[in-house]
């Protein structure tokens, strides 16, 4: 394997040691498998906890900090965190105003966060889950009943995190998280397969001239396998699929062109140019653009396009100060 | 090619269109091949201009903004910018206090920036070049007389940019840029080759179980080709080479563990953990860590370790506010 690791079994714990060493703003507990804000718990503030399989960095631990998440629970690579991790993070961040779980819609994640919420209830902590299911590519998938949760998770965590930072109550924070999810859609394209370290072989095979349209963030199959196309054609396929599901004309959009982990930034900007031009040609306005590898799938080449139909209030919350390892502005 | 592009000849211009669309804080002139701060020129401020071949994003255009560069000149992929680009950027950012060119030590870059400085003189603009040559891997290389300029370019641009933002004169800004370069060293390792779009084939071949120690950022040969090792062994090779050239014990360090473009962030944190432990075990202190893909080589897998021996003044300037697409804090 062409991987910068020590041993497949140690990837997550080694990366957590690196995260802890690099970011004094985080408190990392490798034993518990949790990453929380160093200033947690914040009294009287709704706390946000997310998590999921590792391999999608900076999601979620890179989004822990002021104005976004209070805690994250990284599972093994492409493997849901266990309820014990979630409850440990919950206990570490709970400030008495309740906890919002931001859960990507994968069967294991949904189940384990649900079990954690029950454990939290035993501790007199109110925990509410919001499930993110933004990926329009497939209705059900390898790991999912219903649509997968992908790029919009970042939108939900940022916007709900901003509202929580302002002191809003749990029901309002949960409501805005649901609203963002409902107004968001994503579609991804893989130009290469991906190898889970513990497996040692690619999760799927792609011919040298093939790509997979509608890929998930774990290498799950998408809609179809086709010949590698141009960036403009790839972005057209993604935005056409999104637009068919949620018409974009007339909307003010938050747009993420997201590198999948193995695609260099110069290519992400090539794709963003195509996305901006497509949207302009279809009557939509990009109010807030974001380009970069934020929701990745190990070393997969390719990109995902995610959009959120903004409202003035969602725009205000998106613009609010944030200070995390991977997203930072305006404070 | 598994690349997210439209046509090999259009990669740089397409990416510049994307950069312009994504970042209103930048003024991109695709015809001139320049990227400058939207608020340029700043009267009375020393302006910083850098540039070099494309394919190393976010270097340099992603570092244009408050507290860092005033302008960047992206050449074609792995190709020096021409003097016309450099002088166009110079004219666009000159605020009457002189211009500092931050030049990576590649023969074409050094020559073209020198020619631009002569053109600037004709326009009554004082332009001074500082050449960055931090890479300890090889003494001369394919594109270089002397050492290559790699990861420390980021340090030079950030620290000199901070001093310029404070209103320091050109000689002081140039002096601190030279000081940072002299106190910095880098060493890179490639786990995969890299394909220049216009060439369509990898710049070199690596066996499935091989890596190249001491690689440059264009896939130039390094010191030796060996079997792929663990992250700890790779980091040990890099830091041992650096330490042999510039002893690190007793130093307060700025440390960059830099992803080369195709290595996911989780692996960069695995490498950073190893670097932090190596330095701790060798009597050096990491005062300022940075982890991420900042000085890349297209889709190359691997990492580079860069260090700078800080002084209190260099630390102060590193910590000063910066607001660019790729580096942002504290304002």
TrEMBL record, chains A, B:
Organism superkingdom: Bacteria
Coiled-coil residue windows: none
Q: Name one Pfam family in it.
A: Dak1
Name the UniProt record assigns to this protein: Dihydroxyacetone kinase subunit DhaK
Keywords for the protein's UniProt record, in alphabetical order: Kinase, Transferase
Ranges where the DhaK domain occurs: 7-329
User: PROSITE patterns this protein is in?
Assistant: DHAK
* InterPro entries attached to this UniProt entry: DhaK_1, DhaK_dom, Dihydroxyacetone_Kinase
What molecular functions are annotated in GO for this chain? phosphoenolpyruvate-glycerone phosphotransferase activity
Question: Could you say which EC number(s) this protein's record lists?
Answer: 2.7.1.121
Query: Per the record's keyword annotation, is Transferase included, yes or no?
Result: yes
Per the UniProt record, the source organism is Actinomadura yumaensis
Query: Does this entry carry the keyword Iron?
Result: no
Tell me the PANTHER family matching this sequence.
Answer: TRIOKINASE/FMN CYCLASE, TRIOKINASE_FMN CYCLASE
């Amino acid at each position: 394997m062409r991987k910068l690791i020590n041993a497949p079994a140690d990837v997550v714990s080694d990366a957590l040691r690196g995260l802890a060493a690099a970011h004094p703003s985080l408190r990392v507990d490798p034993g518990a498998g949790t990453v929380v804000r160093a200033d947690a718990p914040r009294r009287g503030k709704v706390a946000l906890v997310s998590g999921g399989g590792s391999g999608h960095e900076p999601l979620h631990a890179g989004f822990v900090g002021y104005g976004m998440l209070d805690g994250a629970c990284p599972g093994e690579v492409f493997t849901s965190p266990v309820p014990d991790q979630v409850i440990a993070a919950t206990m570490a961040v709970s400030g008495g105003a309740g906890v919002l779980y931001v859960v990507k819609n994968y069967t294991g994640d949904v189940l384990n966060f649900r079990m954690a919420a029950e454990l939290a209830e035993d501790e007199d902590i109110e925990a509410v889950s919001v499930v993110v299911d933004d990926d329009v590519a497939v209705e059900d998938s390898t790991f999912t009943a219903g649509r997968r949760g992908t790029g919009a998770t970042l939108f939900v965590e940022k916007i709900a995190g901003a509202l929580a930072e302002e002191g809003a109550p749990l029901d309002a924070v949960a409501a805005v998280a649901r609203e963002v999810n409902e107004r968001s859609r994503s579609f991804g394209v893989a130009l290469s397969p991906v190898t889970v370290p513990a497996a040692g072989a690619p999760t799927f095979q792609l011919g040298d001239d093939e790509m997979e349209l509608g890929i998930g963030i774990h290498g799950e199959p998408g809609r179809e396998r086709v010949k590698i196309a141009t960036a403009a054609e790839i972005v057209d396929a993604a935005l056409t699929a999104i637009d068919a599901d949620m018409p974009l004309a007339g909307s003010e959009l938050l747009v993420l062109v997201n590198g999948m982990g193995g695609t260099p930034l110069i290519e992400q900007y090539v794709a963003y140019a195509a996305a901006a031009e497509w949207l302009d040609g279809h009557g939509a306005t990009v109010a807030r653009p974001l380009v970069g590898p934020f929701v990745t799938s190990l070393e997969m080449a390719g990109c995902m396009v995610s959009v959120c139909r903004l409202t003035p209030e969602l725009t205000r919350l998106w613009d609010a100060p944030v200070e995390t390892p991977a997203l930072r502005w305006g404070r």
